[in-house]
Amino acid sequence: MEKNMTLKKVGSLAILIALLFFGAGCSGYRLGNIGGTEVQGVRTIYVPVVKNDGYEPGLQVMTTNAIIRRFENDGTIQTVRTTEADSELTVTIKKVVKTGTRNDRNNILRTAEYDVEIIAEATYTNRRLGRKIFENREVRGKTAFYVQRDLQEGERQALPLAAEDLANNIVKLIVEGW
User: Fold this and answer.
1) CB-CB contact of 145 with 160 (8 Å)
2) Cβ atoms of 127 and 114 closer than 8 Å
3) 12, 77: one domain
4) DSSP 57-97
5) Number of domains within the chain
6) CATH number at residue 168
7) Residues 20 and 43 in one domain
8) Are 111 and 102 in contact (CB under 8 A)?
9) Quick one: 74 and 11 in the same domain?
10) What is the pLDDT of residues 23-47, one digit of tens each?
11) pTM (two decimals)
């Protein structure tokens, strides 16, 4: 009888220690808006069409749509028209860089894989506080593509993926405050 009582106490103590251990691991998590103090209270954002100072045509609308979709998927901040917004995000694409990363196995003079990277600058303004949270912060979006037959076609198909990565990094910068 006494042995069963001791086993129950040890079992209860082990469960208590496990709960404390797992509870301490989650102590840094917060619910809701998780950006820095400058972003607290911001519920809406206006995203004007991205400017393109690079030489790659057609990236403006593609990147703008990717950023808006990413905010909608995240759900923390809602995209709205300029008159209704608590904050504003302006993005300028500075350049698109294509780099060869892997040669063809059968012909070392031919490149088989490329990285394409969109380099942009973002400025985020909290209209409620009346100040810029960050200005001209460099943000990058990157993806890789393989050349099957046509280099231009591979790059054309890779640019939307790089724009999605850029949008993801911009939204993380605002929402997570890193």
Assistant:
1) no
2) no
3) no
4) TTHHHHHHHHHHHHHHHH-SSEE--GGG-SEEEEEEEEEEE
5) 2
6) 3.30.160.150
7) no
8) yes
9) no
10) 655 554 444 445 566 667 789 999 9
11) 0.75
